[in-house]
Amino acid sequence: MAEPSQTAPSPTNSICIVGPQYCLPYPIDVGIVKKVMTISDGNFVVTDGNGNILFKVKGVLPTFIHERRVMMDAMGNPVVTLRRKFMTAHYRWQVFRGESTEQNDMLFSAKTSSILYLKTKLHVFLANNVTEDVCDFRVEGSWFDRSCVVYLGETSTVVAQMKRKHTVGSVLIGKDNYMVTVHPNIDYAFMVAVIVILDEINHTGRQS
Length: 208
Fold this sequence. Notes:
Blueprint: E1 28-35, E2 43-47, E3 53-60, E4 66-73, E5 78-85, E6 92-97, E7 106-114, E8 119-126, E9 137-142, E10 147-152, E11 158-164, H1 168-172, E12 175-182, H2 188-204
């Protein structure tokens, strides 16, 4: 199977980061539920609009310099590994293919630009963007309102939107629920990984 593209093409083309199977020709609503009352914190379940499980995200015991999450498909196969780097100038996460954390398997990285005054701003760089002069994607919004928008680079082109989904269960059993609308031909696995990183940033309270 051909390796998916590592570039951010024009909005008329598919934006494929994790894999072509995650790029659909129509919008998809993805539900992300964080299970905060579990033995292992940082666990998520991701479903489609019909409640079918798309992904599960589980935490891995952290080391001195790294913290990790593994995102798996419904069958338990690793899709990507999210790794937080502690000893960096910026609050940064790196995302790798499968269970790898090797540099040549890195798909993208994300770092905070600003999380002051309840405003969230995240810059996302694809693996081949080594200079990081301009981000490939950016996330802006208010985490307090659970309202964030993902843009293509520094443009006004929207590729996904996230909002808080309130349910009785979210109040009673301590779950954070998010609904992400991913635009057509946009890699929804990539978008899920970005939202998980945003959640981690919010709950650690770190600032750039």
